[in-house]
Amino acid sequence: MNDSAAGLADPLPVPVYTLTKARSQIVRLVETQGLKVRPDEVRDVEAEVHADLAVPLFRAAKDAGADPVALARELASKLDLSHTLFRQVEAAQGYLNFRFNPVRFARSVVRDFQIEPEGYGKSTLGQGKTIVIDYSSPNIAKPFSVGHLRSTVIGHSLHRILSWLGYFLVGDNHLGDWGTQFGKLLEAWEIWGREELFKEHPTRYLLDLYVRFHEEAKVNPALDDRARDWFRRLENKDQAATRVWRRFVELSSAEFQRIYDLLGVEFDSTLGESFYADRLEPLVRHALDRGVAKREHPLEPAGNGEDDVARDERVVLIPLDSAGIDTPLILQKSDGTSLYATREIATAEYRIENWNPEQILYVVGNEQTFYFRQFNAALRLLGRRTPCVHVSFGLVRLPEGRMSTREGRVVFLEDVIIEAIRRARRIVEDRDMPDDEKEELARIVGIGAIKYADLSQSRVKEVVFDWDKMLALDGDSAPYLQYAHTRCRSILNKAGKPALKSRPDPGLLIHPDEVELLRQIARFPEAVLAAGTNHEPHRIAGRLYKLSQSFSSFYNNVPVLKADSQDLLRTRLYLVEMTGATLRNGLWLLGIEVPDRM
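Predicted structure:
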């Protein structure tokens, strides 16, 4: 018998990790008995069930006209496990429950890791394919609120996860630096602007002007007319309007970059909506010439936030009835100015022409779901077939209601970052390390806590802002995972390099805590794949938390440096190295740094 489990080979792309191989082997085993099950029907089983993998036979039994309970008993008595990763199969109420052969399983997982330790969990799934991902994309002249955090950290994590899966990624920060709101700001600046206040806090001062404009416009509607005229002048490249607008953009961008540097977030491309201004008029003409768009009055008032359009305007719009959507997409107002949708379509066309992506991901709040239906339908009518996928997420709201920049009801992200670092600094204060190292550790721990608080929960859930939950430093939190990693490093540092040079013997890893730790490590590649294909970073966060819990049990119950033999010592050290590297890889995929010590 060959303990390498080479039998029942899988015709799958490399690398084929242990659990993927095991699922494929179960599928092939069942096929030898003339039945079919799918790999996705083979379920991962948590420790409380006496199995490692289980497959329900209810669907297969129905197809075969058999009783699932009897079928499970029959199969369990016939399956030959001799060339697989398994040692045992049992029937249980219509399920087949499989247990791993611990030696073969351990050798397979270790072999997976040895291929590329610092790339454990990588895949060639996306090789040769490009994905553009639009994330963060804040509006110029408005400070980052905590609501901007979700798009920023979810998008940045997905960029890393999809790159890990072999795709070529273009992370595009599509700045909102164009639109009617800038007409409002230019009018507000003209009336109330004060240079000294603007220089002191550019975006917060501009937000104050923006809020004041909306309050004043409620009693003086003429302000809205003058704002529309300012934006028309801006689109027509009026020098005075452009000069002031450019200062808004430059100072806001500098503030944004400071926040991105604190968060450790990067982009491959940063282009504002204004970059596409010269493409807007040709886009409208093309849509009209193609017969996709027409000039008429909208049946109902329409628009997207700042781009409100009145019913009596004669606009350029794209009817979407052919796509089953009653509401048309408006491309141009009656005064010739563009809307958000116009600029968004021009941006998509630029991305398609320049990067030829497999798909474009938009990490945008779920309130834009209907708009993205319109947007995709309009793109198809214009002859663009590249899928534009809305990676939606639940909004962050305050206990008293939804955040609103118009109403000035926001929590600023920079305030959250400063508070997170302050709380972390208080915790590390008694550490025996230089002050500058404490400051750096507080930054890593504090920023990690903020990111993990977001990424550890399903992105589709709405978040009610809570200071304590956002800045949690214990329990299911980034500091808990970071601490598990530093424990790994501490053990390895104490052992020294000579102890790590010898080859491990995975067959020695038979203690229940060792086996469970290997199980958690083996599950990591599947968590990465699921996170990438479903655009759900929380799958990685959840797996890392369980891995850290398993390591804590291992750390408390299994002697490493005082192992009974040198062979066992080096093998357990290698298991610690695998754990640390998996935590490090996973936290990197979430955009979270790991300190050398805590």
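Summary: The domain at 413-589 is CATH 1.10.730.10 (Isoleucyl-tRNA Synthetase; Domain 1).
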